[in-house]
């Protein structure tokens, strides 16, 4: 009996401990800035394969332009940034469930997403392009007629593909794209010929191909999708948190730190 009572007491104590530990992350409809400032910790959700915005290097460390930028922003408030890899197609759900505080990883601002999240100020321009092997002879989107296209699940590129079918969807084989969770597997399929073209962010395409030994084998083609801008995604209730991020952007731009981070990753200042 003593052993049984001990086990019950142990599990009860553990339950109470976990309940107390979880209180700091309890769902709330109020602005979370005061909690974040008090805890000195903010959680950023990202796709950890999105080179060069936020990705894992060979040592397993999460690095990238957005990683450096997020750290620079919150260092102004003496707040630690923790980076949480997530399923990119579920990013808005993760944000609303408060398992993360921010979506910050080459996150394109769009009218559809504005219905779900609050955006910070824009900090970088981007566009959707098709990367293909030159031997496939893709010089414009119409050249994808009857060919196999790849895209990332949950990406702004795939959203544009679906919402503006006349630009690309109506041209590709079966009027659909093969979806990938990350771009690494997509590039492998492109190299092997399983897909003929890959719809992708220009910033990723430029960085990825600049590190390929056979860069001359690829082509990057622009289309008629509207240009995009990267911004940070927040919950609608986190207006003060957004204000703090926007204020930090202004400070980093004025000090030259924003340009310094950009030159580190892109060789030039590509920030807005």
Automatic annotation (TrEMBL):
SUPFAM superfamilies: Periplasmic binding protein-like II. SMART domains: PBPb. Keywords: Signal. Residues 41-269 form the Solute-binding protein family 3/N-terminal domain. It comes from the Bacteria. PANTHER family: ABC TRANSPORTER EXTRACELLULAR-BINDING PROTEIN YCKB-RELATED, MEMBRANE-BOUND LYTIC MUREIN TRANSGLYCOSYLASE F. This is Solute-binding protein family 3/N-terminal domain-containing protein. It comes from Candidatus Enterococcus mansonii.
